[in-house]
Each structure stands twice: as C-alpha cells, then as structure tokens.
Design goal:
Helix content is 38%, strand content 11%. By secondary structure, it is α/β, with parallel strands linked by helices. It has one domain (8-65, 198-490): Alpha-Beta Barrel (TIM Barrel). An 8-stranded parallel beta sheet has the order 9-6-3-2-1-12-11-10.
C-alpha cells in the first residue's frame, strides 16, 4: 500500500497552455522556464493532462494512443512568417496543426536514425509499430476511423498488414521518429524537473478512444460489434455538469477477456505511465467499481445502466506486477461505498474540490473543507471546472440543476466561510487549499492569475472550443510569485520548510 504523500503543493497546467512561438506550448525552453517559476513559487508538483496525440475535438482525453506522445508538443524552430499569424493567448488547433506538421516533417527528415533511435524503437516495441502503422493508415484513408477502412485492414488480416507495412514504410518510420523526438524532449524535461525538486503528475483516463491504435490493435479486449463499432459506450448519468449526463462515446472494456489474460494490457499501460511520471491521477476511478454503460446507438447518456467493474482484481494484478504505486484516484461524481472501499483498500488518496464545498446540499462528512480527509488532494478546481473567478462571477453557471436561490446561498456561504470579497475570492480559495489538512494541494494556473471564465480549459458536454487556453509570461508577475510562495511556506507545503 502506498505511503501517505508528503505535504506539498503543485500547479495544474497542460503543456499546450505554455507560451511559445509556434501557437501552442512545447516541451523545450518555455517548459524549462515554467519549471523555474514553479520552483520560485515553492511548488513541488506540476500536474498535466494526458499527453497523447489528440484527435476529434482536440481533447487530451480522446487520443489516438494511450502510449504515444502528442507531436504538437515537440519543440521546433519557428518560421517567423508563420509565427506572426498565430494567436498568442489561445491555441487555434487547425492552424497550429498545419503549421507544425510542416515544421515536424522537416525536423523528422533531418533526424539521424542512429543507435539512440534504434534503441528507442526496440524499447517501445509493445506499442510503437502498431501506433505508427495506425497513423500511416489513417493518413492514407483521409482520417477515417479504423472501422471504416477496408475490412482486411480493419480486422488486422496478417497479409493485409504486411502489404501495408511495406507500402507505407516511409510514413511509418516518420511517425516513429516523431515519437522518438517527443520522448527525448519529454525525458529531458523530467530530468530538469527532478533537478529542481519538482515531481511530474500525469493523468490516466479510465477509457481510451474508439478511433485509436489501442482499440484497433486490441479489439478482443473491448465490447465491439462485428463491424468494429462499439456495442456499448461509456459516459456518466445526469450530474452537476449536465442534466442529460455525459456521453463520452468510448468503447467499454471486455473485463472478462482482460481478466483471462491477467490484465496484461492494463499492466503495460500503468508501467508506461510510471515510466513517464512520478505521480499519476487515475481519471474516473469510480468506473473500476461500477460504470455507466450506454447502448452504442444512443445519443445521450440518459438511458444507461450501472454495471460492475473489475474492482479489486485489476488493482491486485497491477500491484503484483509493479508494486505499490503513487496513484491519486479521481473520485468525483456519484460515489458509492464500494468505490471508496476500493480506493481505501489500496491506499489511494481521493480528490476534494473547493468549488463543490459550499453548496447547500453539500452535507456529507468529507465535503466541507473542515472535514476533508488528510490523505487526499485538494483542488480549488479542476480542468473541468470554471475558474474560481468565473465560478464566483457567474450567477447562471452551466449547472441548470441549481435554482437562483441555491446559487445565491452557495455564494453567500462561501464568502462567509472564506471571509472573502468579490475581488479576492481566487486567493481566498487558494489560501483555503494551502491551509487544509490535505496532504497535497493543487491550484490551476488560471486561479493563481485570478482569471475569469474566458480562461476556462474545458466545459464538459461542449463539442468544440475547449482546450485552447494559453497564458503569457507577463501575466505571472513577481508579486504573484511572492504571494504564492508566502502561502506555500506559511502552510508548510514547500520542500524548503519540511
């Protein structure tokens, strides 16, 4: 069982949100500079969203591979003419993709296929060849989902795959070189973080995208129809974020098939995660105890049913293979006793969200800040929440389940509890996080900068317009850094005072 985490603090920011010349954050010099800012603030954790290659909607939670890195994050030399046309305060993914694809092609062409590259290809042989072939085929078939490819390729007929590997050899190698470049830069970033006493926290979503190398190359591990489409799909029932629930569209695992081979795919996935991160947040942890299963043809998540997840058997297999792991369990939403029992059995800290702590209905023993469990991670908000300032200023909010009276009562109680005015609400919330008994406190950068709803990273249920947030260096002033460090040190979350 993992030991309790040391008392510490960290910042939540996805690398795409970093400043930089190519219209999107990268893993090079700007990321190193961000590590220096984290150290100056006293933070010892940098939490990121999943780093995989994004597909539809540009979501890091819908990626083409659970093992690969996003080539858009590779640091490349800019072209001044193009850079002048790219926005600074947000990511215009359509323009960035075309811009970076041209620069990446040039970088790949000039990268030697030396011993380091060959060693990388050999080391990542469990997933890299399938991923590179998958991406080459997607390009050949104009981005179509794998189940729409010719049947011999969709069903992975060995002869068809052999022909494709020969025909697409150059494209396959290019994709492998991109992954070599990504992980070379990422591992250099991790080394730089360790030198500054900063741990990197990753994010492992419970589900993978249907249109992914993971599902295409492991179809027998998922509940699919004969044509490759999902028989059932993942989501969550109506909740705080949506009165119709959230329909994610991910295929659901064939847990019986996974159990039959000792959960080998999950062991590989978790091993890869901890090869890249010091800590890992497992998204939608409650789905391992029980998950919401929606028929494959539904268009909302309303008509789903609860099914029993793999539970203890999965985590025992992971533990037996990899030993105790510093996992943070995302236990938000409809949480039942079996979910908490599973989390507590393995000693995984859960999450406490301050934006959820002040509603009139928040009466459970661990919902109010003064009842937060010590062995947990407190957040002012997550990537799915509004910013604190946006939450405070928005009387409507996206939660249509609350009445105007309930919203007013929530705001009044929060102001009284935190002794905060409108202007200082973000910092009052940060102070509450730092002062809490929770072992770990995480703050989204947007809250440290007191930014409003326009800086929100994601609005659940919205198909487009998410994930584009970026900051600029001038927004992180010396006064903000000093104020943040003072709180980190006052509440003994800095490694310097432990």
């Amino acid at each position: 069982m993992p030991a309790n985490l040391p008392r510490s603090a960290g910042l939540l920011l996805h690398p795409t949100s970093l400043p930089g010349p190519n219209g999107i954050g990268e893993l090079g010099a700007e990321a190193i500079k961000f590590l220096d800012v984290l150290a100056e603030c006293g933070f010892s954790i940098w939490q990121m969203l999943p780093l995989g290659p994004t597909g539809y909607g540009d979501s890091p939670y819908q990626v083409f591979s659970a093992f690969a890195g996003n080539p858009l994050l590779i640091s490349v030399e800019p072209e001044p003419v193009d850079v002048a046309r790219l926005p600074v305060h947000s990511v215009d993914f359509a323009r960035v993709i075309s811009h970076k694809r041209r620069l990446l092609n040039r970088l790949v062409a000039g990268t030697p296929r030396d011993e380091a590259y060959e060693a990388f290809v050999a080391q990542e042989s469990a997933w890299l060849p399938d991923f590179a072939l998958f991406m080459a085929l997607k390009e050949m078939y104009n981005g179509k989902s794998w189940h729409e490819w010719p049947a011999p390729l969709a069903r992975r007929d060995p002869d068809a795959l052999s022909v494709a590997r020969t025909r697409l050899a150059h494209a396959i190698e290019s994709r492998q070189v991109e992954q070599f470049l990504f992980f070379t830069q990422y591992r250099a970033l991790r080394t730089a973080a360790a030198a500054r006493g900063i741990r990197l926290m990753g994010d492992v979503p419970i589900y993978v995208a249907h249109d992914s190398a993971d599902v295409w190359s492991n179809a027998q591990q998922f509940l699919l129809r004969d044509d490759g489409t999902p028989r059932v799909q993942a989501g969550v029932p109506p909740d705080y974020f949506s009165e119709t629930g959230q329909l994610w569209g991910n295929p659901i695992y064939d847990w019986d098939a996974m159990q039959a081979d000792g959960y080998a795919w999950w062991i590989r996935r978790m091993r890869a995660a901890f090869d890249n991160f010091d800590l890992v947040r497992v998204d939608h942890f409650r789905g391992f105890a029980g998950y919401w299963e929606v028929p494959g043809d539904e268009t909302t998540a309303i008509n789903g049913v609860w099914q029993t997840g793999p539970g203890n058997a999965l985590f025992k297999a992971i533990h037996d293979a990899l030993g105790p792991l510093p996992i943070i369990a995302e236990n938000l939403g409809v949480i039942t006793p079996d979910v908490e029992a599973l989390r507590e059995q393995w000693g995984y800290p859960g999450m406490c969200i301050l934006q959820f702590a002040f509603s009139p209905g928040a009466q459970s023993a661990d919902t109010r800040p003064h009842y937060f469990p010590r062995h947990s991670v407190v957040y002012t908000g997550t990537h799915d929440n509004n910013t604190v300032m946006g939450w405070w200023q928005s009387a409507a909010e996206t939660d249509s389940t609350q009445s105007a009276e309930a919203i007013a009562a929530e705001r009044a109680f929060a102001a009284r509890y935190l002794n905060a005015t409108d202007r200082d609400m973000p910092w009052a919330m940060i102070r509450a996080a730092m002062a809490s008994v929770c072992d770990t406190a995480i703050v989204p950068l947007q809250d440290m900068l007191a930014q409003g709803s326009e800086s929100r990273m994601n609005t659940p249920g919205r198909d487009a317009g998410n994930w584009g947030y970026r900051f600029t260096w001038d927004q992180i002033t010396p006064a903000i850094v000093q104020q943040m460090r003072a709180l980190v040190e006052t509440y003994e979350r800095s490694s310097d005072v432990l």
